[in-house]
Amino acid sequence: MKHTVKTIVAAAILGLAGVCAAAAEPVKVGVAAEPYPPFASPDASGKWEGWEIEFAQAICKQAKLDCVITPVAWDGIIPALTTKKIDMIVGSMSITPERLKTIDFSNKYYNTPTGVIGPKSETFTATPEGLKGKTIGVQVATIHQDYANKYFAPAGATVKEYQTQDEANNDLAAGRLDAVQADAIALTDFLKTDQGKQCCELKGNVKDDPAVLGAGVGVGLRKGDTELKDKVNAAIKAIRADGTYDAFSKKYFDFDVYGG
User: Fold this and answer.
1) pLDDT at 24
2) Which residues have a Cβ under 8 Å from the Cβ of 179 and sit 6 or more positions away?
3) CATH superfamily of 27-111+215-249
4) What predicted TM-score, i.e. pTM, was given to this entire model?
5) What are the CA-CA distances from residue 165 to residues 31, 52, 65, 161, 186 (Å)?
6) What count of other Cβ atoms lies within 10 Å of the Cβ of residue 98?
7) Which of 236, 226, 219 is nearest to 93 (CA)?
8) What residue range is the signal peptide (predicted)?
9) Which of 120, 165, 180, 216 fits a 20 to 30 Å CA distance from 171?
10) Which class in CATH covers the domain with range 114-213?
């Protein structure tokens, strides 16, 4: 009988230890492994920094979550979420009807236009007519790829896909592309670099299509993970209300990145 009691007590202790260990599991915040300034990129030591890194840190602190930044290749980031290799995505992922078929999203945490850049030596607009006969670079598995294939390819443009935004920007600077489409903030950041200043300029923003470009950027979450979604939404609301969001945003932008 004593042996049985000891066994039960030991089992209970082990069970409690398991619960505590589970409770201590860090929340893995997935970010694109490819640099995407000013939102997220590793510094010389490999530490991740940028506006979205500060955003992730702010919501994790507010929600009292033990978070760890987890880089994942962009084209595999949604599978990483659905297979539980990461717990959320903070990677400038737009909330679109197509993605909502697979994953869930938090409320919007920013929204900016989609732009097109090209050589300073050429004059054209960010329209199907303006890009007819031109080769435009886009990052694979993005809303920009979808938009270019929907609007620019049928009008006579050639859409070239890249694994990273940096690769597309570099090919544009080298004269191997006529244009690049991406988030206007990311493109503006590139245009501020020595390479960008020398070669290129903003040709304009594309006509909005919420069905393709989405209704802003949200935190990607697994379907059914309502507890984490509620915590993230509450944290976004709180850091917007208490000034935290504006405080770190001002370090990167001179306008309201939250958008309308």
Assistant:
1) 59
2) 116, 117, 118, 124, 131, 134, 135, 136, 137, 172, 203
3) Periplasmic binding protein-like II (3.40.190.10)
4) 0.85
5) 14, 16, 31, 10, 9
6) 11
7) 219
8) 1-22
9) 216
10) alpha beta
